Amino acid sequence: MAANTLPSVCIRIILEILSKDVCSLHTCILMNRHWCLISINKLWENPFKYFTNFQKKRRLQFITVYLRCLDPRIKESLNIKFQDNTTFDYIGFLRSVNPDFIKSCITIWMTENVEFPKIIVEVLCEQIIIRSNRLKNLELIGDQTFNIFKLANAERNLSTIKSFKFHFTYNQSETYNEILFDATKISTLIRNIEISYYSHYPLKEEAIQAIPNDCIENIIKLLYNQKRLSSLIIKYLDDFSLSIILMKGLRNNFNNVTKIHLYCIKNIINQQKNHINLLDELQNFKNIQQIKIEKCSNLSFTSNSSDLEFNNLVNITLNDNEKFPQEFIKTLVRNSNGNVKKLTLLDQYNASIYSDILIYCNNLQNFSCSINDDNYNIILSIIYNLKNLKNLKIEFFNNCDKVPKNILTKIGIEIPNILQAFKLSIFNDLLISQESFIEFLSICFKRKILFKNLKITGWCSLITNNKDTYQLILQHYDIKNIEKLQIGCIFFK
Predict the structure, then answer these.
(1) Which of 240, 229, 248 is nearest to 187 (CA)?
(2) Which burial class, exposed, middle or buried, applies to 277 when counting CB atoms under 10 A from its CB (0-12, 13-18, 19+)?
(3) Residue 487 burial (CB count, 10 A)
(4) How high is the pLDDT of residue 182?
(5) CB contact at 8 A, 484 and 455
(6) Whole-angstrom Cα distance, residue 183 to residue 180?
(7) Is the dihedral of CA 211, 346, 329, 421 positive or negative?
(8) For the segment 112-152, what is each residue's pLDDT rounded down to a tens digit?
(9) Cα separation, 188 vs 405, whole angstroms
(10) What are the residue ranges of helices labelled H in 278-350?
C-alpha cells in the first residue's frame, strides 16, 4: 500500500512514533492533503515543546500565528493590525496550555510592539480554552495574573484535562488557593498531578519551609476529588505536609495510583524526630508500580507493620538523597515478590543493600548503581546473575581506592550477551584507564555483545579526549549496531 493512501489510523500511529521529531512531522505535512490534515494536528498540539528558551525568533513566529488566528473583532479591540487569516485554526489544535510560557513569548513580542495592552495574555489563553475542546495538559508555573478556571468555557474544556502541573511560591499562595478551589470543582478526571512549592525564589533548598495550611487543604481537596489519579509528583515540600497530602488527599485513589515521585522533601521541624513513616503510607497504594525518591533528606522510613507487600512494584529509583535509611530499600526489594524490573541506586550504598538485591531482584532488565570500595564484589555478582539485563549504568566516584584497576574488564566478562545499552559515568581518572577501556571493548567484541546505546560521561581522560576515545571504539569494537554513541557531551554517528 502506497504511503499516500494509508488509512488515517495508520498515519496517526506513525505520527505518534515521530512525536519528538519535529523535522519528520513537518515532512509529513508536505506529503499530500490527506497527510497534511492529519499531521498538522499533531505538530501544533503543543508546538512550544519543540524549541528552547533561547530561540527568540521562533517564539515570535508562534505568537504571531496565534494572534493572526484571533477573531477580527478581538484583533480590533487589541489594536492588532494583522489583516490576513491563517489556513488552519491553530489555536483549536492545542492540547496543552501554559499561561506563563505564553506570557514569556508575548513579552518578547511586545518589545517590538510596545503599544499592545498586557491583557493580551489573558485574551489569548481565553481563546485557547474557548476554541480547543481537546485540552489535556495544564501547566501553571510562577505568578498568575488571572484565574484560568474563571475564563469563558473553562468549566467545559478544562474538565477534560489529564495532566495538571502547578508550581507556586509562598507569595503566590493566595492566588493559587483561588485557582485550586475552582480546579477542584471543574477538573476531576486528572491522571497526573505535579506539585511544587517554593518558599523562596530563586529556590534555596536548605531553606524549605512548611506549606501554608490553607494551601494544604486545597491541595487535599483537589486530589481527593480525582476519580482516576495514577501519578503524583511532589517537589520541595516539608515531610509533614507530604504526610498529610498522601494520607488525606489520596484516600479515594489508593487503588489507582501507580507512580509516586518525591523530589527534595526535607524534615524541617526536628532533625531528630521525624514526622512520617513513609513505608506504612506507601503500603496503602495497593497497585504502586513506580517509586522515585531524589534529593530528599532526614526522612523516616521505619514501619510499624510486619506484613508489608509491594507485589506490583517494578521500578525503584533512589538518587542523590542525604541520610537515607538503607532499611527502606531492603524492605522494598524483600517485599516486591521479585517483580522489580528497573532499579536505580545512584547513592553510595554498602554491600548489605546489594546482598538483598542479589537475592530478591533476579529479574532486573534495567540496573543503575554506583560502585565503591565496599560493594564492587557484590555488584559484579549481581551483574553476572542478571540474565535478562538489557540496560546497565555504572558510576565510579573517588572513593574507589580498593576497587581493582581491571574492574571494567571484570564487568565486560560478567555482563549478559543480551545487554543493549551500557552507560559509564566516570569521576575517577586513576581507576578507568585507556588500556582498561580497550580491554573492555575487546571482550565485548569477542563475546558478540551488540550495544545499541553506548554512553560515557563524567570527568576523566576518556571524556576530555573524546575524539581519541571514539577512534578506540572504532578500532576495537564493531559499531554497526550502535544507534546512539555519546562521549561526554558529544554525540557520534
Answers:
(1) 229
(2) middle
(3) 22
(4) 95
(5) yes
(6) 5
(7) positive
(8) 665 556 688 888 888 888 888 889 999 998 788 889 999 98
(9) 57
(10) 278-282, 326-334
Contact assessment for residue 323 and residue 292, using Cβ atoms and an 8 Å cutoff = no
Residue 293, strand partner residues: 262, 318
Beta bridge partners, 16, equal none
The Cα–Cα gap between 28 and 234 comes to 38
Query: In this structure, which amino acid lies at residue 464?
Result: T
Q: Which of 405, 338, 348 is nearest to 371 (CA)?
A: 348
SS3 content of the chain, % helix, strand, coil (to 5): 40, 15, 40
77 contacts: CB under 8 Å, gap ≥ 6: none
Q: Specify the length of the chain in residues.
A: 493
| Residue 107: count of CB within 10 angstroms of its CB | 13
259 closest CA partner among 211, 317, 329: 317
Residues pairing with 393 in the sheet: 368, 423
φ, ψ at 252 (rounded to 5°)? -80, -10
Cell numbers at residue 349, please?
Answer: 550504598
The pLDDT score that the predictor gives to residue 41 is 87
Alpha carbons 233 and 257: distance in angstroms, whole number: 11
- Between CA 342 and CA 341, with CA 293 as vertex, the angle to 5 degrees is 10
The set of residues, in sequence order, having a beta carbon less than 8 Å from that of 292 and lying 6+ positions away, is 259, 260, 261, 262, 315, 316, 317
Residue 274's pLDDT is what? 47
DSSP, collapsed to helix, strand or coil, labels residue 5 as helix
Nearest to 471 by CA among 438, 432, 427, 444: 438
pLDDT tens digit sequence for 167-201: 988 788 888 999 999 999 999 999 999 999 876 54
Of 34, 32, 29, 30, the C-alpha closest to 9 is: 34
Residue 197: phi, psi to the nearest 5? Answer: -125, 120
Task: List Cβ neighbours of 247 (8 Å cut-off, separation of 6 or more).
Answer: 281, 284
Q: Give the type of residue at 457.
A: T
The three cell numbers of residue 24 are 519528520
Q: What residue type is assigned to position 237 of the chain?
A: L
Other CB atoms closer than 10 Å to residue 394's CB: what's the count? Answer: 22
Cβ-proximal residues to 87 (8 Å cutoff; 6+ apart), any chain:
none
- Name beta bridge partners: 141: 167
Please give the pLDDT value at position 302: 64
Instruction: Report the Cα 355 to chain-centroid distance in Å.
Output: 30
Instruction: Mark the ranges of the chain whose per-residue pLDDT is less than 70.
Output: 1-4, 51-54, 83, 112-118, 199-209, 268-276, 300-306, 493
Provide the β-strand partners of residue 371. Answer: 396
Q: Where are the beta strands (DSSP E) in 4-85?
A: none
